[in-house]
Amino acid sequence: MSTLIEKHIVSLLAEKDDRAIALLYENYGDTLYGVAHKVVKDQDLAQDVLQESFIKIWKKADSYDSSKAKLFTWLFRITRNTAIDKLRSVNNKANKEVQIDVSDVYNVGVKGISPDHMDIQDNLDKLEEKYRIVLEALFFEGMTQQEASEELDIPLGTIKSRLKIGLRELGKLYGTTLVLALILNLLL
Amino acid sequence: MKEKINTFLASDLLEKYLLGDISKEEAQQTERYIAMYPEVRESYEELQKNLQIFAQQYALPTPQGLKEAILSAAKQEKRLGRRFYKYAVAASVAIMLFAGTSYFLWDQNRSLQEENTLVTKQIKYLESNMMSQLEDMRNQFIVLNNPDTRKVQVKGKKEGKDLKAVAYINPVKKLSFINVGELPELPENKVFQLWAEVNGELVNLGIIKEFEDKEKLLAMPYGEKAIGYITVEPQGGNASPSVDNIVANISF
Fold first, then answer.
1. pLDDT by residue (tens digit) across A158-175?
2. If you count residue pairs, one on A and one on B, with CB atoms under 8 Å apart, how many are there?
């Protein structure tokens, strides 16, 4: 993500210019949709979440403070929290309507992954399973560290260290891919 | 200092802040650290970068038509917002007008009430004033018309030689009045004063003013064997008369 586009979007948001929404969607839509999907594990719900998140982003546009968080961090927080709230409300409803088959609610319906996303998927696979599980529990399941520790049966201290190392590891992985890509680009 | 920063970085506050899963107090503390220490700021930047990388790995192509739905929803939201703004402005203006009118009416009501109290007081005062005057008039009328009323010419002497006054005395109704028709001129520092001796006590009836209505009757206290006096006293009147100064007697 180029900082130039980011700055442009931020200034459009501040002016309540609706071109900001289109640009946000083009640049962050896939990632945010993926985040929403990862949390709610359902295509229709993920679409609802993305739409609600964008409306929230649009409404809160003037409260975004670039000195406190990068644009993506802000977008991620809103989308993640909207998705977690959505999941909770759906779960509450599902708990009340006992008849509904659980598999209906959690239908994992990812049809296909484009080659672009495949590269990143490879990257993700490289991130050691034990870190990935912790990061996913904290980021997508909306668990607190304490809850993750109990759910995954991992001591709280280990959760904390895996979160730190996992996040740092990502940078390294991504860094090497970037360097490789650059070298490849130069060679070809 | 270094230790403080390391302790902070070792805690999970920065990670919690990154996700927004943090209490207000902790968020403020974290923001303070980010603002104050470059190491913390760098860590936060790195975490943000890595969060994006991590999240991008889950990216999925968005379904067709979703973009259009979101854009139109956002447009509608903007319109609603604008309409709400319009309503809000209209409502504010209405409230201000209402408040202004209310205040105006309240103020008007208050001053009218004040005026009302004042007018009522005035009416009561006039009423009692009129009653006492009527009572006076009635008494005068009774005295003047009553066959039992005696009319006594008051004659002056000394400085009061030219004084012309008539006293009306009614022993039945026990009322007496005096009408001072003409007062001789006195030096500037002297005045005529009216007295009555009732049951051996001298009662001060006040100074007779020169420009008083000639037709006006002055009420005098009535007493058996009472005597009225007119004296010449220094300017402002005297508390008790001196026999030397008597210029007229009115015997009942």
1. 888 888 888 877 767 666
2. 128
A100-141: pLDDT as tens digits: 444 444 444 444 444 455 555 566 666 778 888 888 888 888
In chain B, what percentage of residues exceed pLDDT 70? 94
Residues of A in contact with B66 (CB under 8 A): 29, 33, 47, 50-51
CB-CB neighbors (< 8 A) of A25 in chain B: 62, 67, 70-71
DSSP assignment of A23-81, as one string? HHHHHHHHHHHHHHHHHH--HHHHHHHHHHHHHHHHHTGGG--TTTS-HHHHHHHHHHH
Select from A114, A123, A164 the Cβ nearest to the Cβ of B61: A114
Print the domain residue range for B159: 150-251
Would you tell me how many other CB atoms lie within 10 Å of the CB of residue B49?
18
Are A31 and B46 an interchain contact pair (Cβ–Cβ within 8 Å)? no
What CATH number has the domain spanning A1-111? 1.10.1740.10
Q: Are B219 and B194 in contact (CB under 8 A)?
A: no
Q: Provide the CATH topology of domain A112-188.
A: Arc Repressor Mutant, subunit A (1.10.10)
Q: How far apart are CA A170 and CA B3, in angstroms?
A: 26
* Residues B101 and B164 occupy one common structural domain: no
Chain B residues touching chain A at CB-CB below 8 Å = 12, 15, 18-21, 31, 46-63, 66-67, 69-71, 73-75, 77-78, 81
Q: Where a domain ends, among B24, B41, B56?
A: B56
ipTM: 0.75
